[in-house]
């Protein structure tokens, strides 16, 4: 294991809730309901792809100009929610795990569809731990396309087979697999069944457990 690549929302910080609230607010403004169950389809994909799903859910037809305006309105509200984040918002066990990895010489990268990833890492104090940040500003294709993780591996100078991806979304797991990487799911095993391993969170997760995974898949 030479590198770890982390998704952001729902893996390192719980901004997934903020995304949902922002999309739900937009849906209400457009006159329809948007539920947490429907929001599951948005995990791991880009803002504009998410918008298309939201509009389709409400049966809304929109021009390109209107779509850009809706996306900006959603993002402005999302950033407003994120602006009050602090290091206390890093999910349990994450910081300790990343510190252990860096002590072992493992490179650390971010692979997120969010265009606000850098801003959020600054708010919660995680940016200094990352050797590269690949976000929605650097990729043309959203997950499940493997581009985000391929760029991350190239930035870090590692082969895909020596990288482990940490994901909470089905689209992210598929993207990592298509990139030729091992995948650790963070969340529900029933949803992330294609991951090589699934853990509920980072609390108690050790590098030894991941070394066992690496040995099994050689």
Automatic annotation (TrEMBL):
InterPro entries associated with the record: B-phosphoglucomutase_hydrolase, Beta-PGM, HAD-like_sf, HAD-like_SPP, HAD-SF_hydro_IA, HAD_sf, PGP-like_dom2
Gene3D superfamilies: HAD superfamily/HAD-like (3.40.50.1000), Putative phosphatase, domain 2 (1.10.150.240)
Superkingdom of origin organism: Bacteria
Pfam families attached to this UniProt entry: Hydrolase
Similarity remark: Belongs to the HAD-like hydrolase superfamily. CbbY/CbbZ/Gph/YieH family.
Protein name: Beta-phosphoglucomutase
Taxonomic classification: Bacteria, Pseudomonadati, Bacteroidota, Cytophagia, Cytophagales
Gene: pgmB
């Amino acid at each position: 294991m030479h590198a770890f690549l982390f998704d952001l929302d729902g893996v390192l910080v719980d901004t997934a809730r903020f995304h949902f609230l922002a999309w739900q607010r937009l849906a209400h403004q457009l006159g329809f309901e948007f539920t947490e169950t429907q929001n599951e389809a948005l995990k791991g994909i880009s803002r504009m792809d998410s918008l298309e799903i939201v509009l389709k859910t409400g049966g809304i037809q929109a021009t390109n100009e209107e779509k850009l305006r809706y996306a900006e309105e959603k993002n402005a509200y999302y950033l407003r929610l994120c602006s009050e984040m602090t290091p206390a918002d890093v999910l349990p066990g994450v910081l300790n795990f990343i510190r252990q990895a860096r002590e072992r010489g493992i490179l650390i990268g971010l692979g997120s569809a969010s265009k606000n990833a850098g801003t959020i890492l600054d708010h919660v104090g995680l940016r200094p731990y990352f050797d590269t940040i690949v976000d929605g500003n650097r990729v043309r294709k959203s997950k499940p396309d493997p581009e985000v993780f391929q760029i991350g591996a190239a930035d870090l100078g590692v082969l895909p087979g020596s990288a482990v991806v940490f994901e909470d979304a089905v689209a992210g797991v598929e993207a990592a697999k298509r990139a030729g990487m091992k995948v650790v799911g963070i969340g529900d095993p029933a949803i992330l069944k294609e991951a090589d391993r699934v853990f509920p969170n980072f609390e108690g997760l050790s590098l030894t457990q991941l070394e066992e995974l690496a040995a099994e898949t050689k």
